[in-house]
Write a structure and sequence with these properties.
Distance between the termini: 28 Å
Number of strands: 8
Order of helices and strands: HHHHEHEHEHEHEEHHEE
């Protein structure tokens, strides 16, 4: 299995596993090989992160790193679908590692049981091709956003509350960054509750955007904000504008596209 991963080839078992994907004309076997050689980091294993981790594992992303310092609580179980009653009190990343490894033994799952800080964020996301947001607070999101801009790594933001959610794909040097949309203190971390299916809706769209980036297709939500309202089942997409005074991404320099974003 490990040797196959190094060679970036699909074994007969993998070809059978992913057959329904690579027979899609706009996907193909080469796209599946690209997924196999890719590295995604999911920051936060709550409602969003659990769903993203499941579907990217099933899709065959070759290496998935998961970052979360927290333990499973009973109040998590309405939406964090990787965990069950017997997991309460245990570290989320280790439970996720165990279950995802069983789901797909042909990929590498890396648990990182740490809180994200200013000191460790650059080391954590180094070498990633895409970073997926599964966090629950703005300050940490902005920290990750800044690191992704520095490394020119696509960052796929997602947020949920009640019956609503939103997401955007940030391509450093090409789109506004998260700091263009929010400032520290600009969004209070209020506990408003969330219906369990809403993180699933947003996280699956995040996963689709990540897969597009990884196989060399243009993500549909680069520079756009998608909003979903579960009350009336409506989606709305708006163009985003860069904040010319943004301290993170408004510097006047030319960025080459990230490798994962090349067609």
């Amino acid at each position: 299995m490990v040797e196959s991963l190094r060679k970036k080839v699909l074994s007969p078992s993998e070809q059978a596993r992913y057959h329904r994907q690579w027979i899609i004309p706009e996907f193909g076997k080469e796209a599946q090989k690209r997924l196999k050689s890719s590295h995604v980091i999911i920051v936060g294993l709550g409602g969003l992160g659990c769903c993203s981790a499941l579907y990217l594992t099933a899709a065959g992303v070759g290496q998935i790193s998961m970052v979360d310092f927290d333990v499973v609580q009973r109040s998590d179980l309405n939406r964090q679908i990787l965990y069950s009653e017997e997991d309460i009190g245990k570290k989320k990343v280790f439970i996720a590692h165990q279950k995802l490894s069983k789901l797909n033994p042909y990929i590498r799952i890396i648990p990182i049981p740490h809180r994200i800080t200013q000191k460790n964020i650059m080391r954590i996301i180094d070498q990633a091709q895409v970073v997926i947001d599964g966090l629950d607070n703005l300050n940490t999101r902005l920290l990750v956003n800044s690191a992704c801009v520095s490394y020119q790594i696509p960052f796929i933001y997602g947020g949920v509350s009640r019956l609503r959610g939103m997401l955007t794909t940030i391509i450093p040097g090409k789109t506004p960054c998260l700091a263009c949309l929010f400032t520290k203190g600009g969004q209070k971390n209020r506990r408003l509750g969330v219906l369990g299916v809403i993180p699933g809706v947003i996280a699956n769209l995040q996963s689709l955007e990540a897969i597009k980036c990884l196989i060399g297709e243009s993500p549909s939500l680069a520079g756009k904000l998608l909003r979903f309202n579960g009350n009336d089942m409506k989606f709305q997409i708006n163009d985003l504008k860069r904040n010319e005074r943004c301290k993170v991404c408004s510097l006047k320099f030319s960025l080459s596209p990230n490798k994962a974003f090349k067609a």
